[in-house]
Design brief:
35% of the residues lie in helices and 25% in strands. It is α/β, with parallel strands linked by helices and 301 residues long. The protein is elongated, with a radius of gyration of 20 Å.
Amino acid sequence: MFNITGRRRAAVGVTGAALLALSIAGCGEKEATEQPGGGASVTATADSALSAKVPDAIKADGKIVVGSDTTYAPAEFLDTDGKTAIGFDVELFTAVAAKLGLKAEFVSAPFGDIITGVSSGKYEVGVSSFTINDERKTQANMVSYYQVGTQWVTKKGNPAGVAIDNACGKKIAVQKDTVQVEDIQKRSKACTDAGKPAITVEQFPGQDAATAAVVSGKDDAMLADYPVGVFAVTKSEGQLDLLDKMYEAAPYGYVVAKDQAAFAEAVRDATKALIADGSYKAILDKWKVGDGAITDPAINP
C-alpha cells in the first residue's frame, strides 16, 4: 500500500476481487457484466527514434523484464488463469515498451523486493503503483506516469447523506494499515473537538471486506485509493457510487535503476508519446481510472 509519503495503500488482489464479486452477488444482485478493462487491449506502434534511445544492453533480448506485485487490482493483478498479469498499470507499461520496440515481460514479485531487484539488475523496470517520494528518488530513477489520491465510496444514492468534510456520527469502513485510517481518524477527532459525534471507524484486514460492508449497508461509506474505489463501484453493478472526487493526489512512478539515466529518459519520452497519440488516455478510460491522468511525465519530479 502507499500513502502520500510512499507506503503502499489499500490493495484488492485477485483473491480480493473474487471475494468482492461473491459478496456483491450474495446481496441479491447478479454479478457485474461490465468489467473494468474489458475489451481489446490498446496497442502502441514502435517509434524508431525512441527505440534508439534504449541502451543496447537492455534491448538486446527484445524485452523489458518488469518486477510487479500483482495483487493490486485494478492496477496490476493476475487474470483468471492465475499467471497472466493484467491491469491498467500492466497495459500502460506494455504500451510504453511497445513504443520502444520491445515487449514487456511481467514477473510477479513481493512489493518490498522490487526496488532492490531493479537496482541489482534482476528486473529492468519496476511497475507496481509506486508513489514517488524523496526516499525512493535516492534509490532509483522514478518516472512519473499517473497520480492518485483517496476516494470515498457510498451506497448507491448516498442514502446516509455522508459528506466528506462532515461525516460525524457516520460509520465508515477502511482497510487496516492504510493512509486512509489516519485520514478518517483525524476527521473523527475534528468532529469531537467541535462537540459533534465521533465517526465510527471500522477497520478491515482486506479492502474486499470493507467494500462488502458498504454494499450490505452495514457501513455508510468507505475510503480507498481512487483506482480501488472505481474498481469496487464498477464491480458492484449499480450498488455503489463514488462520492465527490479524489483528493491529496500523489504521483506514481516507474522504477528504473539509478545508473540507467538514459533508459529512464527513454521510458519518460515513450510515456509522453503515448499521451500525445491518445493511447494513454484510451488505456486509462478503458480501465475507468482516467481521473488520475497526467500531462507531463518527468524523472524524479
